[in-house]
Write a structure and sequence with these properties.
alpha/beta; Urease, subunit C, domain 1; Diaminopimelate Epimerase, Chain A, domain 1; eight-stranded parallel sheet; six-stranded mixed sheet; 18 helices; globular
Length: 560
């Protein structure tokens, strides 16, 4: 449909309705934007559905019927959008992204769907042919499970990349492949010692295969050139444009201090079109404490105060920490990336400073250990509104599920991972542990708070696909049409809340985001169908027609 033509028709209707009603003073109550004839899911328990929304500047001023909103339309001063019955929802909030990496990956070699070792090698070689000698090949997000689970090796790609260092990540970000040139530049060879909290796979002669896992990846950090300020800003612009096209109006970015500095530059120049909660590494809590004391926590566009740490690695890399060994490698059970004493010290210091702590924990042991630390800190410092978060919380012991609600810990999860990992996870952890893997239903039934995100660049920054994943749990390979671990499915409205109101709560923003309610920020998404009323398997076919941030349209496809 052509919204621009429809807008004119309903705009005349709205003006005729307004002419029949007393007019408000246009200087203080007239809408600058009105959305009419909508099917609006508000997320507000007091008014779950509405037909029309009025916005003044960056705030919602009215939610109700077309007649209610028509009274707030000014003569020639109000932008009018006709939804023609299409769905409007609060702006999606993605609670876990690596934003700069995602923006950079948009222009890098694409390996996620490489189905064979040969295709993996060919794509890297073709990308190398199109860039200058000496330029690094980064990103990639490959998945060795696509071809049966064999890890790639530098020998696969050396001949195709003789003049370009390669450092490409597995899609979970917990291991990466370097070619021989990159290893040489980093000084990694057969004499390089093993790294605590990481792994350097070696061949029969003791040489690194090119794969580095978790903490061992830091061996490459000095060799890989960081992006310039200008490059980083371009990456963030690309990322903002990309997520806006998918209906995302706020992101919680786990990227760190360089990204925060770039956001501050963009904000000073009024270049942000996505609201940012910028999160920095947990071990730097003292620096953040001082930064907040000097600069405050920010405003509606850019906020700080969050810290992100790591307990363990990932399931796909066999570096997630479990109580029992992996099913497919009985001599391994993963490991902790950081010592428990260090985690306890950092979390304690951050809590005393009043900062917001969120920690990556994937294996059941990592989750249990983290819950223990959160409990100890709470007991030591007394009750307050901490909103501790566990990022991913993927493989939870059944006995630990009630602890999330009891300790008021937010489960910050990424539903797309369930339909991705579900292709192969049972061979790694077995069917019994799989029962509480991505345990969305169990957590909600236990009254835990569930917030959703993507983990982009690891997974697509597409909330509609995330909702589809949470509701259907149909794995990407089509092998589970009724859902993988189907008892963990949630409803569409539960998934919507996890991407809106609970996601806002997960950053202390529930008083300004996550619902369509008067007084809230005017962050809205228009969809081309009501996703609560269609077969769940068709949700990915839904199109984002418009994304509105602070009352301003930042993405639209009306003319397409």
């Amino acid at each position: 449909m052509n919204y621009r033509l429809l807008t004119l028709g309903l705009g005349l209707l709205a003006l005729s309705l307004a002419a029949c009603s007393p007019q408000k003073d246009e200087t203080d109550e007239t809408a600058t934007l009105a959305i009419l004839d909508a099917r609006a899911w508000t997320g507000d328990p007091e008014q779950p559905w509405a037909q029309a929304i009025a916005v003044r500047d960056d705030r919602i001023i009215a939610v109700g019927s077309d007649e209610d909103v028509a009274r707030l339309i000014g003569s020639g001063t109000t932008q009018i959008i006709t939804a023609n019955g299409d769905m409007v929802v609060p702006g999606f909030i993605d609670t876990h992204v690596h934003f700069a990496d995602g923006g950079g990956a948009l222009a890098s070699v694409q390996l996620r769907d490489a189905a064979t070792p040969e295709e993996f090698t060919r794509r890297i070689g073709e990308f190398a042919d199109g860039i200058e000698p000496g330029e690094w090949i980064l990103g990639g997000t490959w998945d060795h499970e696509n071809w049966g689970g064999e890890l790639p090796q530098r020998d696969w790609i050396d001949a195709a990349t003789p003049e370009n260092p390669v450092w490409v990540f597995r899609l979970d970000g917990h291991m990466a492949l370097a070619n021989s040139l990159a290893l040489d530049l980093a000084g990694v060879d057969a004499d390089t010692p093993d790294v605590a909290g990481g792994e350097i796979p070696r061949d029969a002669e003791g040489r690194p295969t090119g794969i580095l896992k978790d903490n061992a990846m830091a061996l490459m950090s000095d060799a890989v050139p960081p992006p310039s300020d200008a490059q980083l800003e371009r990456m963030l612009h690309a990322a903002m444009k990309h997520v806006a096209a998918n209906g995302v109006t706020t992101i919680h970015d786990m990227s760190g201090w360089d990204s925060l500095a770039a956001y501050r530059r963009l904000h000073a120049n009024n270049e942000l079109i996505t609201r940012i909660y910028s999160v920095v590494p947990l071990r730097t809590w003292q620096r953040l404490r001082d930064d907040v004391a000097e600069n405050g926590i920010g405003d509606d566009w850019l906020r700080t105060g969050g810290l992100k740490g790591f307990m363990d690695g990932s399931l796909g890399s066999h570096t997630a920490a479990f109580f029992e060994p992996f099913t497919d490698t009985p001599d391994e059970s993963g490991f902790l990336i950081n010592e428990l004493d260090d985690m306890r010290e950092w979390i304690t210091g951050a809590d005393v400073a009043g900062l917001h702590v969120m920690v990556h924990a994937i294996g059941d042991k990592a989750i249990a250990d983290l819950l223990d630390i959160y409990y100890e800190v709470t007991e030591a410092h007394g009750e307050r509104d901490r909103r501790f978060r566990i990022e991913h919380a993927q493989h939870i012991r059944p006995s630990d599920i009630p602890r999330f609600a009891a300790q008021d810990v937010i489960a910050s999860m990424q539903p797309y991972h369930a339909i991705d990992d579900g292709r192969w996870a049972e061979k790694v952890i077995g069917p019994e542990r799989a029962k509480t893997t991505y345990a969305f239903r169990s957590l909600l039934d236990a009254d835990a708070r569930l917030a959703f995100g993507s983990d982009w660049f690891v997974a697509p920054a597409t909330p509609l696909e995330g909702i589809y994943a949470a509701v259907t749990r149909r794995t990407l390979d089509g092998a589970n049409p009724d859902g993988w671990v189907p008892e963990q499915k949630v409803s569409v409205e539960e998934a919507l809340r996890a991407y809106t109101s609970t996601a806002a709560y997960a950053s202390f923003d529930e008083d300004r985001k996550g619902m369509i309610r008067a007084g809230m920020l005017a962050d809205l998404v228009i969809l081309d169908r009501d996703i609560t009323a269609i077969p769940a398997e068709t949700i990915p076919e839904t199109r984002v027609l418009a994304t509105i941030v602070g009352g301003r349209v930042v993405h639209e496809t009306w003319s397409e």
